[in-house]
From TrEMBL:
Pfam families: GFO_IDH_MocA, GFO_IDH_MocA_C3
Domain (GFO/IDH/MocA-like oxidoreductase): residue spans on this chain: 133-257
Alphabetical list of InterPro entries matching this protein: Gfo/Idh/MocA-like_OxRdtase_N, Gfo/Idh/MocA_Oxidoreductase, GFO_IDH_MocA-like_dom, NAD(P)-bd_dom_sf
Protein's UniProt name: Dehydrogenase
Residue span, Gfo/Idh/MocA-like oxidoreductase N-terminal domain: 6-117
Organism: Corynebacterium guangdongense
Amino acid sequence: MSDKVRLGIIGLGAEGTMYADFLKEERVGNMEIGAICDILPEKKTAAEEYGVPFYEDYQEMITSGDVDAIVTTVPHYLHPEMGIYALDNGVHALVEKPVGVYTKQATELIEFAKSTPELKFGVFFNQRTNQLYKDIKAIMDSGELGKLRHTSWLITNWWRPQGYYNQSDWRATWGGEGGGVLVNQAPHQLDLWQWICGVPESVFAKAQYGFRRDIVVEDEVNALVSFADGATGTFITATHDMVGTDRLEILCDKGKIVVENSKDVTIWRLHEDEQVLSNDMDMDMVKKLFTGKVDLNDYMSTETKSYESVWGEQHCEVMRNFAAAVQGEEELLAPGGDGINGVRLANGIHLSSWTGQEVSLSDFDEETYLAELNKRIREEGKFEERN
């Protein structure tokens, strides 16, 4: 292998073009474009501008010998079959989020990847390269703040007007896209939330379908999850909020982390476990507390920090890390197997909202979910059912 991994880009839309431009600009030192594939023949002109071979069939590109790895910038349902075909033909696979639309589909790819351990299988979770979230994960993994008590993420700052949904027949459909905000805008946050706080055991959710948009999929979600040891969490998202909010809170036994706008972080570190401080506060101190005579800053320290990022650097870092893993130099920051967590949680939220019941995630009923999904695909009458 040369000193650069040759990447085959499947799908030269907005995302695929962005990755191609990053590589053309040599922003990823250990990776280059090997070939481009798109079902639209008119994209050949664009591919020629990058100076690489063009294919209309992704299978032909994968078996051409022009690429060492692929990235799947295509509709969500296609990610697993393309990933499997690449791995089955000796080509490394970097699959866009989500790894699959439903767990049965995602698991098929993940299980197949285990049969090709010599090949790298990653998922394009670029937010895992964000130094802000890497630092928060390090704090949580260290245990310095104690056990998780509660976490919430309110993320509504991706307003999508109706024209966005009207741009193509497959968008915002069950058969074409597999859902709304949960499978399109929110997968990065669903991944980060579980990457940092742990994988929840169950979920109870209320989702609104076509609430303020003329679509059949969800444009608003309110979900309550339960973690091990009694910890809980809430996840709220929507695409109809023009103002938008992005606020992540993580409350632990010995402190709290708050992130605003994925940029500004405040960390409170208690001098003792909160329960110890509570038990040591007698009634005289409680009276002083209620009358404003106790300064809680005496019981904790506060750290604030702001993070800046350069456009595209997170995407470039995912590609650089993936290429380094292919070359045997680094471990994957986002192994493909991790992608099942976000898919399972999104599926669980859907299923809970459809049934009105709390849904177990530790032994998720993927057959029931798939049956409910296919029911909605049949009602649309535009796409084939899934298996």
